[in-house]
Specification:
With 485 residues, the chain is of the alpha/beta class. It is built from 17 helices and 19 strands. Strand 16 (349-353), helix 12 and strand 17 (379-384) form a beta-alpha-beta unit. The termini are far apart.
Length: 485
């Protein structure tokens, strides 16, 4: 197979060895280029020159320049980058003095036996699950966009000790094209602490990553994500990139792309096509999306009726809303050739979801994560949950179990929980008895005459059957205690 592309890289000649290597590369490039001119089509030459290296006038028409290894990687042909390295992936997060978190380090890079890039954060209310997602969203938004969240909101993020507000520091390690990059934000009572930020050794690199993140799918969804026909204009002055994160910060916010579900129109048709393909994989058997007659608005067939999106049950409406917004974000950021097939498996990006099980029936909680793994294999998901059915869908390496009693604030799991029942997940992992506290109270009081009857009832035994068994027990007891018998 003939060579179709020749890449010649020129680096600064700081040391004599580099001068020799550049000279050898020039000779090799010239030789192979002349040989490749006879190809059909002719050999393509790319000259990638460091901006610190002297220009080569005879080859300037082939030239593209770079300032660091990241820019060099971006200039290399896309097919030279593995699928695994496509897009930016969060690997670690460190939080200091942010809301109720004094110090926490979270590792999202542990190898999992399950497909995809997933992390699930669990813990009691107030443990910091939502705070972790907010801190991560801010780090990925970056210096320029974080102020759009609002000064009062940023002030509330500072950890309070008595009457004092402590400065917050957020750091993430991200993998970008095979390289490890650092993102950092410092917050003070004045907002972003630009003194600390500008003096950070990776500041220039961070500016580059933040700029590129604006062109990548980054979406966040809070636990009160809403879809309403009320037109909420409170955040209309913010950039679309920030609006896609606002439900994580403002409990009254709507998902950004309400037009896809409520307005329709020719402009939303490509997104709707991808959304219908995605819903067919994620909500198969539960909802069947289609277009309303003489309209381009989505309807959903549920039972024997067609239902508008706005009239879906809360769990379905919330799930459809964030899936629609994800598809819209993909169509707005990806290249046309990437979205042409409308295949959701091509979607890449980072998705943060607070309480992914929100309002969902247990049967869908049980199947949601495996379906999303299959439908969206290239998306990194970082989610929170209270559901044992959701938790048991994760490899132990993917579960971040917040526990103040554990070293570092995170409980290390020494076993897989795939085969755990919901009661076992509640008891062992979530440290919560699976029985009702009503029974505990009645046992402690010991005054309810029907207490034995409650104890005998179960999923396999009705109240009437329990009464019959209790009568048999009492009859047997009387016989055992009667001396005449």
């Amino acid at each position: 197979m003939p060579l179709d592309r020749l890449i010649w890289i020129v680096t600064p000649e700081i040391y004599p060895k580099v001068q020799v290597e550049n000279a050898a590369a020039a000779l090799a490039a010239g030789f192979f280029y002349v040989q490749g001119l006879a190809n059909n089509p002719p050999l393509e030459l790319q000259l990638l020159r460091s901006r610190d290296a002297a220009p080569i006038r005879a080859a300037q028409r082939f030239e593209k320049t770079f300032s660091d290894l990241h820019e060099l990687a971006a200039l290399l042909p896309a097919e030279d980058k593995s699928e695994e390295e496509a897009g930016l992936v969060v690997e670690k997060l460190t939080i200091r003095n942010f809301k109720n978190i004094e110090h926490l380090e979270v590792d999202f890079s542990e190898p999992s036996s399950l497909p995809g890039r997933w992390a699930c954060i669990a813990g009691i209310n107030g443990a910091g699950k939502s705070s972790i997602l907010q801190a991560l969203a801010m780090l990925l938004l970056g210096e320029k966009l974080v102020p759009q969240l609002g000064g009062d909101r940023l002030l509330r993020f500072l950890r309070r000790v008595g009457s004092q507000r402590l400065g917050s520091e957020l750091t993430a390690i991200v993998r970008d094209g095979g390289q490890k990059r650092t993102l950092y934000l410092a917050l003070s009572e004045q907002g972003i602490d630009r003194g600390k930020l500008n003096s950070h050794p990776d500041y220039t690199s961070m500016l580059d990553v933040w700029q590129r993140l604006e062109k990548q799918v980054l979406v966040s969804y809070g636990a009160t994500r809403n879809l309403s026909d009320f037109q909420d204009s409170r955040h209309s002055d913010r950039s679309l990139h920030v609006r896609r994160q606002m439900t994580l910060f403002d409990p009254l916010s709507q998902v950004a792309s309400v037009d896809v579900l409520l307005d329709g129109g020719a402009a939303t048709a490509p997104t709707q096509k991808t959304l219908k393909a995605l819903l067919g994989k994620v909500l198969a058997g539960d909802l069947a999306p289609g277009l309303a007659p003489s309209s381009d608005r989505l309807l959903f067939h549920q039972g024997d009726v067609d239902v508008e999106t706005i009239d879906l049950p809360d769990g379905f409406r919330s799930t459809v809303a964030w899936l629609a917004d994800l598809c819209a974000a993909w169509h707005q950021t990806a290249l046309p050739e990437e979205t042409a097939s409308s295949d959701p498996a091509n979607i890449t990006g980072i998705v943060l979801i607070d309480e992914i099980d929100l309002h969902l029936h247990p049967s869908l909680q049980r199947s949601l994560i495996p379906r999303l793994r299959e439908a969206l294999p290239k998306v990194q998901f970082i989610v929170t949950t209270h559901s044992p059915l959701v938790l048991s869908s994760f490899d132990r390496a993917e579960i971040v179990m917040l526990d103040r009693a554990s070293e570092g604030g995170i409980k290390t799991l020494d076993r897989q929980i795939f085969a755990f029942s919901t009661d076992q997940v509640y008891d062992w992992l979530m440290n919560t008895p699976p029985q009702s506290t009503v029974l505990d109270e009645k046992l402690a009081e010991g005054t309810d005459p029907d207490l034995p009857l409650y104890m005998l009832q179960s999923k396999d035994k009705s109240e009437e059957q329990a009464k019959e068994e209790l009568d048999e027990i009492r009859t047997l007891r009387e016989k055992l205690l009667d001396p005449a018998s």
